[in-house]
Write a structure and sequence with these properties.
Elements: H1 4-7, H2 16-26, H3 28-34, H4 36-42, H5 53-69, H6 79-89, H7 101-104, H8 107-116, H9 124-131, H10 148-155, H11 172-182, H12 187-221, H13 227-248, H14 253-261, H15 282-292, H16 295-308, H17 313-325, H18 329-342, H19 347-359, H20 363-375, H21 401-416, H22 425-437, H23 441-454, H24 459-471, H25 475-488, H26 493-505, H27 509-524, H28 540-552, H29 559-563, H30 567-573
Helix pairs in contact: 2-9, 5-8, 15-16, 16-17, 17-18, 17-19, 18-19, 19-20, 19-22, 20-21, 21-22, 22-23, 23-24, 24-25, 24-26, 25-26, 26-27, 27-28
């Protein structure tokens, strides 16, 4: 092609524009002669001194403009391809490109830029003529000089029907769709997928928030966080289910037998080889030992007294209360039940057995005993309208909430009948037991303190206060209450054991082990009136607690001694006097 040398110049080759310049500089006359006629048509003639590089370029652009002005403006049309893409995407509004002809007017810009780079303009048209064996420049028609290549190119471009194309900017969103379609992905599909992902994330977050709110609402409305209340609900439901099964049919002999004949703590287990059986004044001697604080010896003497006289209400009462202080609640309940079988309205026995039932987790029986105490007390019997049978049932130990609320209300009414100076410590003790049953330890503490205000030297009340403080996670205060109780009653085994438990809670493991060993020593040194040592039963609960304390002390060397219950060796290990 004739333009190839101009457009695709080889590195190192001679530029045709340079050749053109050479022709003009070598033969100024020919240039003047042959280019006068076009200049006369296009504009004023140029003088030889005006035939500079800038002048040649200006003349070329002027001739090109004359040629192109006679033809309609045309463009390189991408609209057909773009229209097809819009048709696929459902877009009907075409976007037309800017006409190429309108860009020709900006030719001076590239020419100026070219001249600024100090490159010469040469006669490309002469080179084109030589390569195509055309006539010499002086034989060319005016319209062939400079504009032939443009006419050839423009003739090959389709002419737009209305001779014009309006310039229109491409919308960015439409351009993004176009790029996405070229890459094989539909913009709408991407947007839809992204929207679906966002919706899924939002739905997941909304679901999680809704679940949390429902869980909180359910926790607030239906689930009570108090563990004891949960246990009460569980046992209440179990009891209701049991009753429904029992009501379905009358023929449940094993169930009937269990409900009517189950009687725990029915028989008291006496100590074997009790030397106090030879003492025919055992009851009085037992009272003396109790006054002296020799609790194990008092237990042996009271056992001998009731064996000598099985119908002794006082003997059974003292035996039961002594065993309760000796950390032997099952034995205490058996003795107190025997006392109540002989005298159902014995107030001291009813209050004592209520405490022992509480310690052994017989909550329903504890409430039963407390109501029996009220209805058998002439001062408060008028408060009880729904009287209970003196015989206690053991088919269930579950305490219904209605029962607890009713009895608590009765005791509160009884407390309101009293004046401050006539405060009944037994009423306050009963309220303290009831609040312990419902785990309301702060109120229970207040009740026991009120009872102690009326009877400040009662070691039982000090011990109950200490136990309630410990249950309410107030171990430091509990230790103080236990020490006060032991000051009034040094041989109080239960109080000594409770003190050891509080020491474990305070991480004083050495002191805890010493208190447990002291309590076991008191239990093991029960003596009769002749001073002979008895094989008094030691509490299995205390032994278990001692093993725990030894383990926390990291003393594996003492494990064998605790397993075989070698009390003397253990006392020596902790430097506790065996004979004291």
């Amino acid at each position: 092609m004739a333009m190839r040398g101009l457009v695709e110049g080889d590195c190192g080759g001679q530029n045709p524009l340079t050749k053109l310049r050479g022709h003009f500089t070598q033969d100024q006359g020919r240039v003047e002669d042959r280019f006068l006629r076009p200049r006369e048509v296009a504009g004023p003639p140029l003088h030889p001194q005006e035939l500079t590089e800038q002048g040649l370029v200006t003349e070329f652009l002027h001739e090109t403009h004359q040629v192109t002005s006679r033809r309609p403006p045309t463009t390189f049309r991408m609209d057909t391809l773009l229209q097809e893409l819009r048709h696929i995407d459902g877009v009907n509004k075409p976007t037309q490109a800017q006409p190429v002809a309108s860009l020709l007017g900006a030719g001076n810009l590239w020419a100026d830029e070219y001249l600024q780079n100090e490159q010469s303009v040469t006669n490309w048209s002469s080179e084109y003529i030589k390569e195509n064996n055309l006539s010499a420049p002086d034989q060319l028609a005016p319209n062939q000089i400079g504009g032939g290549w443009a006419e050839d190119y423009l003739a090959s471009v389709p002419v737009i029907a209305d001779n014009r194309v309006e310039s229109q900017d491409i919308d960015p969103e439409e351009y993004e769709k176009f790029i996405a379609s070229l890459d094989g992905r539909q913009f709408e599909g991407q947007q839809a997928a992204l929207q679906l992902e966002r919706n899924a994330e939002k739905e997941a977050v909304d679901w999680a928030n809704e679940f949390v709110e429902l869980a909180k609402s359910d926790l607030e409305n239906h689930v009570q966080t108090d563990q004891d209340t949960y246990k009460q609900d569980f046992w209440r439901n179990l009891e209701d289910e049991w009753k429904s099964i029992q009501a379905e049919t009358d023929e449940h002999p094993w169930l009937s037998e269990y409900s009517t004949n189950y009687e725990p703590f029915s028989e008291y287990q006496f100590q074997e080889n009790n030397s106090s059986l030879e003492n025919f004044n055992a009851l009085e001697e037992g009272k003396k030992k109790l006054q002296e604080g020799d609790l194990p010896s008092a237990v042996l003497l009271f056992e001998a007294a009731v064996q000598q006289d099985p119908n002794s209400v006082e003997g059974w009462l003292l035996l039961g209360k002594s065993q309760a202080e000796n950390e032997q609640d099952p034995q205490a309940i058996s003795a107190l039940k025997k006392c109540l079988s002989l005298e159902p309205g014995n107030l001291s026995a009813l209050l004592s057995i209520a405490v022992s039932f509480t310690n052994e987790s017989y909550q329903a029986q504890a409430c039963h005993a407390l109501q029996l105490w009220l209805q058998n007390n002439s001062q408060y019997a008028h408060l009880v309208t729904d009287r209970l049978d003196s015989k206690m049932a053991f088919s269930t130990s579950f305490m219904p909430e209605e029962m607890h609320s009713k009895i608590t209300s009765l005791y509160i009414q009884a407390a309101r009948l009293q004046q401050k100076e006539d405060l009944d410590p037994n009423i306050q003790t009963g309220l303290g037991i009831l609040f312990n049953l419902s785990s309301d330890y702060d109120k229970a503490v207040d009740c026991f303190k009120a009872a102690l205000a009326a009877n400040p030297e009662d070691s039982l009340l000090w011990n109950r206060l200490g136990a309630t403080l410990a249950n309410g996670n107030r171990s430091e205060e509990a230790v103080s209450a236990y020490h006060t109780a032991l000051r009034h009653n040094p041989g109080f085994v239960r109080c000594r054991y409770n003190l050891g438990i509080s020491c474990i809670n305070l991480k004083a493991y050495q002191s805890a082990a010493e208190h447990f060993l002291t309590a076991l020593k008191f239990q093991a040194t029960g003596q009769g009136v002749k001073g002979a040592q008895s094989d008094s039963a030691m509490s299995a609960t205390i032994w278990s607690s001692l093993r725990l304390a030894v383990s926390l002390l990291n003393r594996p060397d003492l494990k064998e001694l605790t397993d075989r219950k070698d009390l003397d060796q253990l006392l020596n290990q902790f430097n506790i006097d065996v004979s004291s």
